[in-house]
Specification:
Blueprint (H helix, E strand, L loop, with lengths): L1 H8 L6 H13 L3 H13 L7 H12 L3 H14 L3 H13 L3 H12 L7 H20 L3 H21 L5 H17 L2 H17 L4 H13 L3 H14 L4 H13 L3 H14 L4 H13 L3 H14 L3 H13 L5 H11 L1
Helix pairs in contact: 1-2, 2-3, 2-4, 4-5, 5-6, 6-7, 6-8, 7-8, 8-9, 9-10, 10-11, 10-12, 11-12, 12-13, 13-14, 14-15, 15-16, 16-17, 17-18, 18-19
Length: 338
């Protein structure tokens, strides 16, 4: 439809975003070369000073974490104007692509002397210093790593002071402190991480990220029972939330509490009986405990809901590895599949 509209309008005499939409259609159809050609055309016919197509293409790649492409298409936007929103977006892209000096320069130009009171700027600075610290660490520059991490922590402290009711800088603190622990094995970092995790949780207990941060720190501290209690509490309030239930199932499996893991799966199957993934997961647990008939029933249901070659193979394999193999069942499956 978009291509026909362009042809009716004479090719170049259309809004550049029409070509962007055409590129989007190609991208969704896995036609990468055609998508790029349409986007390049959109950019070619932009009027001077009109960077809507460039920004849209950059945003497409930004949303998919394709940072170099996002940088390439956003560069003309920032070269034309240092408008705040575009500048801060470009600084974020520069941080993702490790162009730290370019990011620092842009942030400085945008923030001016008011950066100490600017929450977004402080969050960007913390990300920039974190990236710099990671790069120094990879290069074996320990002193520079520590200095960058001190600056990162200072930026996060400023962000918390500016927005004391926002959980995001606290969550970032948790992540950074856990990273520092993994590098130094100094438990003091975990104690600090738990403090910030509890603060984030207190600010927004309903947000999964806040519960997850607290659970991860508790596991790092060797307190699985407390971590499980946090997950139970979250699941009680959000019974169909997949990530929290999968997290708890994995924790039960890792601690050999297979029965509890199966119970969680039975519960979610009652709540979401048309989700093949839960049947498949339960079937895999049944295989672990040699409950092959139950596993076969789960894989059969999963295949009924979502036919795929992978699940088909599971249906076959479970009948062959059972204590009492069922070759006739396998033949029946293959006949129905052919």
């Amino acid at each position: 439809a978009t291509k026909a509209l362009i042809e009716r309008c004479g090719g170049d005499d259309v809004d550049p975003l029409i070509y962007y939409d055409l590129g989007n259609e190609y991208a969704l159809s896995k036609k990468g070369d055609e998508a790029l050609a349409a986007w390049e055309k959109a950019i070619e016919i932009q009027e001077p000073g009109d960077f809507r197509a460039s920004r849209a293409v950059s945003d497409f790649f930004f949303a998919r974490n394709q940072w170099e492409e996002a940088y390439k298409y956003h560069l003309p936007v920032i070269q034309d104007s240092m408008e705040r929103i575009s500048a801060l977006r470009h600084a974020e892209i520069c941080i993702k692509t490790r162009r730290f000096e370019e990011a620092r320069e842009i942030i400085s130009r945008v923030a001016g002397n008011g950066s100490d009171d600017d929450f977004i700027v402080q969050m960007l600075l913390s990300s920039m210093y974190e990236g710099m610290g990671d790069q120094y660490w990879e290069n074996g520059q320990v002193e520079e790593t520590n200095e960058a991490y001190v600056q990162m922590q200072a930026a996060l402290d400023s962000a918390i002071e500016i927005a004391p009711t926002d959980e995001k800088p606290n969550l970032q603190k948790v992540r950074i402190l856990r990273n520092m622990y993994s590098r130094t094995m100094d438990r003091v970092h975990l104690d600090q991480a738990l403090k910030y995790a509890e603060r984030a949780y207190g600010l927004n207990a309903g947000l999964w990220d806040c519960t997850l941060a607290k659970v991860n720190v508790l596991m790092d501290l060797g307190r699985p029972d407390s971590a499980i209690a946090e997950l139970d509490r979250y699941i009680d309030s959000n019974p169909t939330h997949g990530p929290s239930r999968r997290k708890l199932i994995n924790m039960y499996v890792s601690t050999d509490q297979i029965g509890s893991a199966k119970q969680l799966l039975d519960e979610i199957i009652q709540l979401m009986p048309f989700d093949a993934g839960w049947y498949r997961a339960l079937g895999q647990l049944h295989v672990q405990t040699d409950d092959f008939q139950d596993a076969a029933r789960c894989f059969d249901k999963a295949y009924e809901l979502e036919p795929s070659a992978e699940i088909l193979n599971m249906r076959i394999d479970v009948r062959l590895i059972a204590d009492d193999p069922d070759p006739n069942g396998v033949i029946g499956i293959l006949k129905n599949h052919s």
